Amino acid sequence: MRILVVEDEPKLARLLARGLAEEGHPADVALTGEEALWMADSDAYDAIVLDVMLPGLDGLAVCRRLRERKVWTPVLMLTARDALEDRIAGLDTGADDYLLKPFAFGELLARLRALARRGPSERPTELAAGDLRLDPASRRVWRGAAEIELSAKEFALLEVFMRRAGEALTRVQLLDGAWDMSFESRSNVVDVYVRYLREKIDRPFDRGSLETVRGIGYRLRKDGG
Fold it and tell me: Tens digits of per-residue pLDDT, 78-120?
């Protein structure tokens, strides 16, 4: 594995790089977020170890910008922040894993090996079908530049559709994805909420992204209609 270590404490950065090299993993070091962006853009790494607390451009912003630039190298966040909200924020920006300081070097290696086995794959933080966009972290939806207000259940159903855009989904699959087990598959709740979604994401924009698939259920067109 070739690793990019992004850490603003030079001593810790050198220790991590040396330890990784001793384990057979060449490591480059970036001391700032801006330097990390340039290096990750310019070179191919198998994983990035990214400290959250960086001067200037912090780790969350670095990770977000990497994903916006379609850089899908697995990212392991390092941070001294142990609050749940901080861990959620890190993962929602596009990070793949999260390790709290102080940590055991053996655990860092094990997590990096697990990330490398997955390999880089497209994991956008924002879902899109044509000009229809959905941000799971902020729970916001747009059609082009227009933001669309959805209820919690409408949002959950649309997220299921967008994660599997182009697929014909049965009512049971949609129930499993957006409702809890208290709803029976015989319920027409899916049809009701598909109608609600059409009224909000399609009709005002003269679109037809949500299609009825006879004998199966529904499909969201990949091009957004």
Answer: 988 777 777 788 788 889 998 998 899 999 999 998 887 776 6
- Reference 36, options 57, 6, 64; nearest CA is 6
> For 81-204, where are the E strands, in sequence order?
97-100, 127-129, 132-135, 140-143, 146-148, 168-170
Q: Give the pLDDT band (50/70/90) at residue 121.
A: low
20-77 confidence digits (pLDDT tens): 888 878 889 999 999 999 999 887 788 999 999 998 899 999 999 999 888 889 999 9
Residue span of the structural domain in which 54 resides: 3-118
Domains of the chain: total: 2
Q: Three-class SS of residue 127?
A: strand
Q: Angle, nearest 10°, between helix axes 33-42 and 59-68?
A: 30
CA distance 87 to 102: 15
**The pTM is what?**
0.63
Residues 99 and 175 occupy one common structural domain: no
The verdict on 99 and 132 lying in the same domain is: no
